[in-house]
Specification:
The complex is a heterodimer of chains A (about 650) and B (about 260). Helix content of chain A is about 35%, strand content about 25%. Chain A is α+β, with helices and mostly antiparallel strands. In chain A, strand 25 and strand 26 form a beta hairpin. In chain A, about 45% of the residues are buried. In chain B, helix 2 packs antiparallel against helix 3, helix 6 runs parallel beside helix 8 and helix 7 packs antiparallel against helix 8. Helix content of chain B is about 60%, strand content about 0%. Chain B starts with about 50 loop residues before the first helix and ends with a helix. Chain B is elongated. With about 260 residues, chain B is an all-alpha fold. The chains are: A alpha+beta (about 650), B mainly alpha (about 260). The interface between A and B is medium-sized, with 34 and 27 residues.
Chain lengths: ~650, ~260
């Protein structure tokens, strides 16, 4: 590997159901890179604003307006759809405003309609990833192309593969998928050099995980994990929305279930109420329902009632916790520390239940929204070669689900048990039934149930090119290997001929390699080329800004205070910026801007002094801004304009 | 249960006796067959086909010091985990993936005394009734459940227990409860569990005998002794698995 690559930054990304974040290791500690609005969280919300199918979608906070005004042009919680098929999202479709593409067929990759266009869930996730990537590139002023991405520990193979695909589509090489609770443990254990058995209770926007780890001399060994990839704050919101809509139908005699805009307004109101109830005993919902001619819905919700509504959801998390403890062969009392992760752990009732189960006060000192991304940055640092802070740190994770193959009677024979440390492998032997048979099919599943129909189908492997022999003669050795990402790899060999058997994989869900490749080609911003283009545009904008600021400065009284020499020098530097700014050489523009900035420092200071008193080291642009005169500067966090 | 003195993990990165073999792919120094790393430059070496005991540099002994095994597992993990080769070349990445998956598989097998025994018996060429690959294969091909050979002395007892279980299930289906039957089953379960305890004690003793026999394997007498211990362990494991299934069935019937 080239040295240049090794030195490149590796990002830690939390691709969440509700919010996404990107973090890096800065010296000894991981830090979150904020977005252009200064916020650490990028809402996992993608919208296609009306008027232009060729537009790049809006991501995060800017997409909010579209969600309320044009609900069908926006999508949130797309993580719930990752790695799933048309058949298994029927329940989801009742609760979430997902709009399947019109000609959606079972057995095909899921496609979601968004405005005039259609996207697969990995493509939508890729928009979010690309926004995070852009935020980081704006911050560092250099391409960011490699990352560690967190996934729920209980994600199955298809969901993990879909996340990896999303990374590829976004122009990111995904060096590792790391389980969210484990990432949290890394962030948690980093500064404290912890030892002992800890539990991480991770209750996020759409998923729940519990992981039990043994911490010993920097090794983070996961002993057991359990969870539910469709259990989170979303489910609490949906219960509250349903209650409110029933209320509206009952009390106001108004059925707004089909009114997307009204439902979105109700959704936002109950989410606000839910958040308020973490601090107050009572929250009031008071909203005007759009499209009803000004009807208001008003309701007070107290904490007791709220806790009753959400009790069934919380009980499901406890079931997972008990199973994880049983798998770890531990009692709750043997858990020495409990860490809370995920936004839903802000709910006081959740904290109380966790405390009750483990008989100890859980740790809440790390921001539950950020700890996953911070941990991902730690893992990214380990993969990039480590540093003083991460020296001796090693994560040993497990596979959350048993891997099996279907046998003749539709029964699943388990070949790798759940909670096996990964990488894990199993070798099985297969043979033929008919003389001269040259193919053998293997159906691989994930899950704990006995029958294939109750487990998650991962893929059908077709072993091809077996030399024709008498039935039962070929001895095909198939190696199933779950790698450190929790993703299955299969290889096969016919032992009598020593021939490497050709395997054709038909993934049950998700995308083929060719499909992902074509999406990468289709994608709007193709890694480095686009990065250069964007960087160039940003530099040109900045050049325009500083020239404009200088024009204003010339009219300022401070200009006259400069010596003739200084004025000439400024003009020379300005001319240089003018000369290079429409060229293609980013570095030349950058240098010219920096020179001009330096050369006009005194002018800027003089302008500032005249208003606010001494402030050394000001740039032209800042001076103008402070004077309320300049245009918004394209600073590292400024929104990129892509023409 | 284990005696550290009899295990002794060698402090070597080369788990088997040194035989000359190809040079290290990286630095060219000589490496011993199936060594995980080059002694000269420390780079991971291509993976050969070795058994789990060899992987850990262990003789095929059945008493293992678990604390030491864990330390060795951690030590090797630090060197073999794919994280460590993330910046290595493709070959290194593949070898380290192969090796760390075997490391994990080997650790999982060896740290559990029953899995360890079963694995060792397999290496010794024994096909356990329940665990043998052939039986698994056959079950997979036919879709039938794997057959269990009932140990003859358990035949009568198992027969009666199965009758009671049938009765119990039938009663449950009718929505009836039979207190007498229930307490009979509870008693049967207790009896099975105490059988398992006795069995475990004998098995533990056999592990000791195996290790002694193996350490003195050069004399013909000890070879015969080794076979005797081996066959007795096979018998005990079969009985164990049979009784455990009975206990499981009783528990299921009682909890329904």
């Amino acid at each position: 590997m080239e040295i240049g690559q090794a030195k490149e930054r590796v990002a830690g990304i939390d691709l969440g159901t509700t919010n996404s974040l990107i973090a890096f290791m800065a010296g000894d500690e991981p830090v979150i890179i904020p977005g252009e609005d200064g916020s650490n969280l990028v809402p996992s919300l993608v919208a296609m604003p009306p008027g232009g199918a060729e537009n790049e979608p809006l991501v995060g906070n800017p997409a909010r307006k579209v969600l309320v005004a044009h609900p069908r042009r926006a999508i949130y919680s797309v993580k719930r759809l990752m790695g799933r098929g048309v058949n298994d999202i029927q329940e989801e479709l009742k609760l979430f405003p997902f709009h399947l593409a019109e000609n959606s067929q079972p057995g095909q990759a899921l496609r979601i309609a968004l405005g005039e266009r259609e996207f697969t869930p990995p493509e939508i996730s890729a928009f979010i990833l690309r926004q995070l990537k852009r935020n980081a590139e704006r911050y560092f002023r250099e391409p960011v192309t490699r990352a560690v991405i967190t996934v729920p520990a209980y994600f199955n193979d298809a969901q993990r593969q879909a996340t990896k695909d999303a990374g590829r589509i976004a122009g990111i090489e995904v060096l590792r998928l790391v389980n969210e609770p484990t990432a949290a443990a890394l962030a948690y254990g980093l500064d404290k050099k912890r030892e002992g058995i800890i539990a991480v209770y991770d209750f996020g926007g759409g998923t729940f995980d519990i992981s039990i780890l043994k911490l010993h001399e920097g090794i983070f060994e996961v002993i057991a994990t359990n969870g539910d990839t469709h259990l989170g704050g979303d489910d609490i919101d949906n219960l509250l929305i349903a209650t409110a809509l029933d209320d509206i139908a009952g009390d106001l005699k108004l059925d707004v279930r089909g009114n997307g805009e009204a439902v979105q307004t109700v959704r936002q109101a109950v989410i606000d109420a839910k958040i308020a109830l973490s601090f107050e005993d009572e929250a009031v919902i008071d909203i005007e329902l759009p499209g009803t001619g000004g009807v208001r819905y008003q309701r007070a919700l107290n904490r007791t009632a709220f806790e009753q509504v959400i009790a069934p959801v919380l009980e499901r998390t406890l079931v997972s916790c008990r199973q994880a403890l049983a798998d770890a062969k531990l009692t709750a009392a043997q858990i020495e520390e409990v860490v809370l992760v995920g936004g839903s752990t802000r709910i006081p009732r959740v904290r109380a239940l966790v405390k009750e189960l483990f008989q100890r006060e859980p740790h809440t000192d790390l921001n539950p929204d950020e700890v996953g991304a911070l941990g991902a940055a730690v893992q990214a640092n380990i993969l990039a070669g480590g540093s003083e802070a991460t020296r001796d740190m090693l994560l040993l994770d497990v596979t959350p689900l048993s891997l099996g193959i279907e046998t003749a009677g539709g029964v699943v024979a388990k070949i790798i048990q759940r909670n096996s440390t990964i990488p894990a492998s199993a070798t099985e032997h297969f043979t033929t039934w008919v003389d001269g048979q040259v193919n053998v099919a293997i159906h691989v599943l994930q899950g704990e149930r006995e029958l294939a129909e109750d487990c998650r189908s991962l893929a059908r492997f077709d072993l091809k090119g077996i030399p024709p022999m008498t039935a039962g003669m070929p001895r095909i050795e198939v190696r199933f290997l779950i790698d450190a990402n929790g993703i299955l790899n299969v290889s096969a060999r016919e032992q009598r001929s020593g021939k490497e058997a050709e395997i054709e994989v038909k993934p049950t869900y998700g995308l083929s390699d060719e499909q992902v490749e074509s999406m990468i080609l289709d994608s709007f911003d193709n890694a480095e080329e686009d990065f250069r283009k964007r960087q160039l545009i940003e530099a040109r904008n900045e050049a325009d800004t500083i020239i404009l600021a200088l024009a204003k400065g010339r009219k300022h009284a401070a200009w006259a205070q400069l010596s003739a020499g200084e004025q000439q020098q400024t003009a020379r530097l300005e001319a240089r910026v003018e000369k290079v700014k429409n060229g293609e050489d980013y570095k030349a523009i950058r240098d010219a801007i920096d020179e001009l900035n330096k050369g006009t420092t005194r002018l800027a200071e003089l302008m500032m002094n005249s208003v606010t008193g001494a402030l050394a080291g000001k740039t032209m642009d800042a001076a103008n801004q402070d004077l309320g005169a300049g245009p918004t500067a394209p600073h590292p966090f400024a929104k990129a304009e892509i023409s | 249960m284990t005696t550290p003195s009899q295990t002794g993990l060698p402090e070597l990165d080369s788990p088997v006796a040194p035989t000359p073999s190809p040079a290290c792919w990286s630095c060219g120094a000589a490496v011993v067959t199936s060594a995980h790393f080059c002694r000269a430059c420390g780079k991971v070496q291509p993976s050969g086909s070795i058994d789990h005991f060899t992987f850990f540099g262990l003789l095929r002994l059945l008493q293992i010091d678990l604390a030491q095994l864990e330390r060795e597992f951690y030590r090797l993990s630090r060197k073999l985990h794919p994280d460590m080769s993330a910046r290595g070349n493709t070959g290194e990445q593949q070898w380290s993936l192969d090796k760390s998956s075997q490391l994990n598989d080997a650790y999982r097998t060896l740290r559990d005394p029953i899995a360890r025994t079963e694995y060792l018996l397999e290496l010794e060429g024994v096909k356990l009734e329940e665990q043998s690959q052939a039986a698994t294969q056959l079950a997979r091909q036919t879709g039938n459940e794997k057959k269990q050979v009932v140990p003859p002395d358990l035949l009568e007892e198992a027969f009666e227990l199965n009758m009671q279980l049938e009765e119990m299930r039938a009663a449950r289906k009718m929505g009836e409860t039979d207190a007498g039957l229930e307490s009979d089953l509870q008693a049967a379960r207790k009896q099975c569990e105490s059988k398992l305890e006795t069995l475990q004690a004998e098995l533990t003793d056999l592990w000791k005998q195996w290790d002694i026999a193996l350490s003195a394997a050069d004399s013909a007498g000890h070879d015969a002794e080794r076979l005797r211990v081996r066959d007795r362990m096979v018998d005990l494991l079969n009985r164990r698995s049979y009784i455990r299934n009975l206990v499981r069935d009783v528990q299921q019937a009682l909890s329904q």
